[in-house]
Amino acid sequence: MFQTIRGDKMERGKPKSGFSFVSGLAVIYAIFVFTPAILYLRLMMGTGGIPVSWFTVILFVELGRILGYRITKQEATMIFILSSAELFIPLGMVYRGYFRTSDIVALFGIADEIPTWWAPDPSTGVYELRTFFHPAWTTPFLVYFSELIAVSLAVWGLGFFARRLFIIEENLPFPIQQVSARAMITLTEERSKENISLLFLTATLSFAYGFVAFALPFIVQAYANVKLTLIPLPWIDLSKNLEFLLPGALIGVSTDLGAIAGAFVLPIPTIIGIIVGSFAVYFVGNWLSVIYDLSIERWWYPGMSMQLALQRCILYFWGAILMGFGMAGGLVPAIIRLLRRRREPSARRTKFWDRNLLKLFLIPLIGVWTLSIVWYRVLTPNFPIWIVFPFIIIMPIILVLIDGRMLGETGLTFAAGQTGNLMRLIYWSSGYRGADIWFVPTPWRAGAAGVLSQLKVCDLTETDVMSFFKMWWLFLPLGIVVGFAFVQLFWSMAPIPSGRYPGAQIFWPISAVNDCLWIRGLQRGLFLPEWLAGSFVVGVILATAFELTGVSKVLPFISLVAGTVTYTPYAVTYGIGLAIRLILCKLLGAKWFEERKQMLSAGIMMGYSIAAIVGISITLIINSIWILPY
């Protein structure tokens, strides 16, 4: 059963395939055009967040209109999803070589312990040649691609399971995915003058803001080598203004319009929950942890930047607490609602498991279990696998239960980002001191939130999910080949990192230091299991109370959990977006806003994304001119 948006109502419709020559051509265009752009941005700036989906959809929809071809909403959905999903940037393979030969790693005494199945030995000369076309890379690539295939199978299997649970059975709202689906429908079908005018008006305003915020600074820096900051990114830090009164409390305003767009479509109780959860942790909780010296080690000092403060407060205080709280927030509602469903009369229940779901879910999951165990036994034969075995089995399911519900109710995710810390804790508690364990592939940490999000967009636009599945696997090899080709090209032009690629030169050494600190355990004692257990128990009690008393209908508990991983600048901007929303409702009427909120949000994200594309494209052109002999 599929659903599509009509105003605020959901109507049943028959799914159709989005797989066509045009949608395939658009995906190929995105792979060849945006792969080098994202790669270049990562090397130059340390980040590669180019929102290519909106640009590609609008380009092909309008080109089709000019040429007399009407792109369907199903084709637009495939273009929107796959133009970013198939972009493959294997820069991590070059980082492996850097890490293997880094002075930082040598200083920690790890260099000689790094296994050759992860990165080739320097004695092979492969790093001086700066090439992947060398026999020394054979084993690392075999391990790498086997992990890639395992993770891909796992996220699809878990994604289909989550789709049945959260989309079909519980029919969660997925507010952010509603925005994307609304844009696809408006661009291809509902092209009324009012809708198109509203869409492009908000897109124009957000484009102007985005151009001033980051496109213009990119261009000025590329052209004149002058750093220009008109709007601070990613936030305006106000914490230093309050530190004399509230030491450790973090407050600011995010300059990212994404929070404004989210506040237009998220349910108001969810927004309030996010704001409350965020301020409870990073404002009030941080302040209390400083004045009462509650943290494992002192994490705050006067004048500290918010970026550093966030890293340190999580490392020295919140890490285990948030992990336990998040686990409770994801598991308890799922268990209680499952029990309620079992109490329903059999006539009202739908069949959850069927043969197709079992095949799509269990076969990939069993494959991941098996391959994970084989990797641990073969690559690290001395590691006590019994310690990690329970996590290999249960963690993929726990992750999808937590992140699936959070994504469906708030548009945010949490659990998958915490599995790295969990893995480190497991390795520490094992007593194993070999460095090789830190490089073993861990597909059991794969999260399925991304695939679930994409499946929901397909559902809302009446797109056959199997056509999505087929296109994803069909274009994956092309994305991989093109990605490796461009990485090889950039690497052969200059060493990575180097002065030619300043982003990597700044951030790769920092990553190497962090990795070495974890591997050598110089920060042992930063995790207290009793804190995780205590926060989990508190979370279970609160989540149970919210569910059984009906408070969750007014203030969803999962929104509080989402707030604990939403930094206060973003929470403040959510609040600003909520205020704008209420003002528009007051001035134009609640009905007017409810019928157009997804259009407003889509326009904001569309214009913001196009500004990023324009700025980065011009920057690439300017930076490429130096190669010319004139």
Question: Which key phrases capture this entry?
Answer:
two-stranded antiparallel sheet, globular, single chain
Characterise the protein shown here.
There is one protein chain. By secondary structure, the protein is mainly α. It has helices at 21-45, 52-67, 73-85, 91-101, 103-107, 126-129, 138-169, 175-188, 193-224, 258-265, 268-291, 306-343, 355-379, 385-410, 419-430, 449-460, 465-493, 502-520, 529-549, 551-554, 557-564, 568-588, 590-624; strands at 2-6, 9-13, 235-237, 252-254. Helix 2 (52-67) packs across helix 23, helix 7 runs antiparallel to helix 13 and helix 10 (258-265) packs antiparallel against helix 23. It is globular, with a radius of gyration of 25 Å.
Q: What would the principal axes of the Cα set say about the shape? A: globular
Strand content: under 5%
Profile the largest sheet: 2 strands, antiparallel
Number of separate strands: 4
Mean pLDDT across the residues is 79
Q: How do the SSEs run, as a string of H and E?
A: EEHHHHHHHHHEEHHHHHHHHHHHHHH
Rg is: 25 Å
Query: How are the strands of the largest sheet arranged?
Result: 1-2
For the record, give the distance between the C-alpha atoms at the N and C termini, rounded to a whole number: 61 Å
In short, what is this structure?
The chain is built from 23 helices and four strands.
